[in-house]
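So, could you explain this one?
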Amino acid sequence: MCERRPTWDEGVRVIDKQVASPAEAVADIPDGAILAVGGFGLSGNPMKLIEALHAQGTADLSVVSNNCGVDDWGLGILLADKRIRKMTSSYVGENKEFERQFLSGELELELTPQGTLAEKLRAGGAGIAAFYTQTGVGTQVAEGGLPRRYDGSGGVAVASPAKDVRTFEVAGRAHEFVLEEAIVADYALVHAARGDRHGNLVFSKAARNFNPLAAMSGRICIAQVEELVEPGEIDPDAVHLPGVYVHRIVEVGSDIEKRIERRTVSSPASTEGA
């Protein structure tokens, strides 16, 4: 006798990925987890998920993100309470507490070229274990020796290892390439403008930065969205990230606070002598 197949409506409920709150969405993230977090500067930061993670006290985190926010916003709120053990980033210049912790030996840093970091996340989501790139050839990125952790007295406690470098012929010329391993995170935290209950996401403008790549990298991807709609309301051609990569989705509204690192405005034109 054949097993009864679920009806269409039952199937929709099975793949409904909506959760009630950011706190519920991150509740099972344990101490020591590896997180891939979207955002570039403060653009596209999954702030409600970060705040929920901070509120539940999760610590000893290894975080992969382009940067670590600023002192009081973004990932900076986790850093300020020493919840982050290691950062894998490409830019860390906007956070004074980050500098202090790194130079004092409290924080480990794996500094990675930005394009390489993006591809390491994408490769992790695509099931590619490693790849060769020319970025970093002839530098400490490939040769090793970059400080990852200081000893608190100005010395280097942990340095980056040397990486495999091979020569390949490209367009009739030999070039050196360095091997970079993919990143697969335990969880990914991302922000999107719109999403449906099946997890299909649409990002707005500059927020479409590291968010899709971080989402791909996570074994479990948690997305906060400003607007949650019903399946079918998003044109398939408008989907930036398909729901196959997303496991939980929570609506946070469009009135959430959004910050920028520095506000730069021009002075009004002088009217003297007019």
User: Anything to note?
Assistant: The first strand starts at residue 34 and ends at 37. The two ends are 92 Å apart (CA to CA).
